[in-house]
Amino acid sequence: MYANNMDSVRDVLCFFMDEENGDEIGFVQFPQNFDNLTTNDLYSSSFNVLSKVELHGMDNDGGPPYIGTGCFHRRETLCGRKYRQGSKSESLRWDHHQRIQDSASVLEETCKPLASCGYEENTEWGKEMGLKYGCPVEDVITGFTIQCRGWRSIYFKPKRKGFLGVVPTTLLQSLVQHKRWTEGGLQIFLSQYCPLLHGHGKIPLKLQLSYCVHLLWAANCLASLYYVTIPSLCLLRGISSFPKVSSQWSYPFIYTIMATSAYSAGEFVWCGGTVRGWWNDQRMWLYKRTTSYFFAFLDNILRLLGTSKSAFVVTAKVADNDVSKRYERELMEFGAPSPMFTILTTLAWLNALSFIGVLLKLAVHGQTPDQLAMQIILCGLLVCVNQPLYEGIFLRKDKGKMPTSVAYKSAVYALVACSLAYV
Predict the structure, then answer these.
(1) What Gene Ontology molecular function terms does this protein carry (predicted)?
(2) Tell me: the pLDDT tens digits for 167-189?
């Protein structure tokens, strides 16, 4: 991130120095904006809905979270101080010491502890002072504890963007980044800092629930994995997972699907996106839920069992010229083998085989698809969403195509799953 608005500091001081409510403001959060997004936001990295809708809602409920960048903090909040109504902020006080000229060797020895950061050991730094260490999303937990001490946060979105940054330019980088975020979010929810427990009586209930919505992203993997596998496998056996289309019991399903899709698309376009960008957003939600969220969920379970520890993974933001050109052309980058790509490709094979299989069965036997219509539509939509994956497997010849080893291995896994569905 880098500063893009010379008035940002002045604007923030207006909040902090407000005579009526300035003393209760702990930090001012700017939205995240990026200057390397593609026209249709290939990897759904813009956070348009989050910055233009959700964070404004949290601002009304008690204050947005600290999102790790583009934020101005009051010094007292990072020093662990609680807000007390009516108390004025302490002015900066500096102890003036007489300067003593020491030899170079003495100064060198004095600087060594500072350079090694050993002065933080066995102190409150990283616990009650400064950022809270030990969590992949230390920014969120730090902002949450500041709010629990009575401070209020402000969400400020000026016309001229205050800060700009860059987003990952490959699919794997984006998935790894979201894995870290969701792993840290679930870790907070399962810890003593769960908003429903630690925030009880300290922040509004609406703000507690707003935090929970984002901290529980990883748990979405369970339902998503079910809907992309079980209905498709049931198609091969002719087992219906939904009511007949001609039945009145199908109306709630049809209404829910149409209403949520129309609302989601309308909201996305209203926030400045495109229809194709919304489709990319739906694809990335599917990819994140079945890979990033799934691995984040597993890592949290293993951590609770004591067999794994959380690690902070830095997301690479620098790409070579070929990768950058493919990104600008909005071609998904699959070039490197990864367990995440193995899962995605296996699911893509599975849905393609199920979709083709059920269509052949209906054509051969001349059956009407009324009983399985909703499953066929679901499977067909999953095939359409996975179009870039099929292109990466069959059509592309550049270095960004799906690795052959991943494609073959995933095909075997999918065939085994389809074979077991007949047993």
Answers:
(1) cellulose synthase (UDP-forming) activity
(2) 999 999 999 999 999 999 999 99
Rounded to an integer, what distance in angstroms lies between the CA atom of residue 195 and that of residue 310? 20
136 DSSP assignment: T
Task: Assess if residue 207 is contained within a domain.
Answer: no
Question: How is residue 128 annotated by DSSP?
Answer: T
Residue 363 in any domain: the answer is yes
Indicate the helix (H) or strand (E) that contains 370: none
User: Among candidates 162, 122, 128, which has minimal Cα distance to 142?
Assistant: 128
Residue 21, pLDDT score: 87
| % of the chain residues with pLDDT over 90 | 69
Q: Would you say residue 389 has pLDDT above 90?
A: yes
For residue 303, the tally of other CB atoms under 10 A from its CB is 16
Query: 71-75, 320-324, 410-414 — which is least confidently predicted?
Result: 320-324
Token pair, residue 157, equals 């979105």
The pLDDT, as a whole number, for residue 135 is 86
**pLDDT at residue 127, rounded to an integer:** 63
DSSP-derived 3-state class of residue 256: helix
- The answer to whether 74 and 27 have CB atoms below 8 angstroms apart is yes
What DSSP line would sit under 61-74, residue for residue? HT-PPP-SSSEEE-
The number of distinct structural domains making up the chain is 2
37 within domain boundaries: no
Q: How far is CA 80 from CA 98, 275, 407, in A?
A: 30, 46, 52
Pairing of strands 2-3, 163-164: antiparallel
C-beta separation of 232 from 375 below 8 A: yes
Q: Is 167 exposed, middle or buried (0-12, 13-18, 19+ CB in 10 A)?
A: buried
Mean pLDDT to the nearest integer, 245-274? 94
Give me the residues paired with residue 163 across strands: 3
Cα–Cα distance, 100 to 243 (Å, whole number): 84
Residues 357 and 240 occupy one common structural domain: yes
- State whether 144 and 249 are in the same domain: no
What does each C-alpha distance from 378 to 82, 125, 227, 258, 295 come to in angstroms? 52, 51, 9, 13, 24
Residue 120 lies in a domain: no
The DSSP bridge partners found for residue 154 are 28
Task: Report the SS3 class of residue 369.
Answer: coil
Domain, as residue range, for 143: 1-30+47-82+125-166
pLDDT band at 117 (very low <50, low <70, confident <90, very high): low
CA count, 13 A, side-chain hemisphere, 167? 21
User: Which letter does DSSP use for residue 316 in this model?
Assistant: P
Q: For the residues 269-290, what does the mean pLDDT come to?
A: 96
pLDDT of res. 91: 45
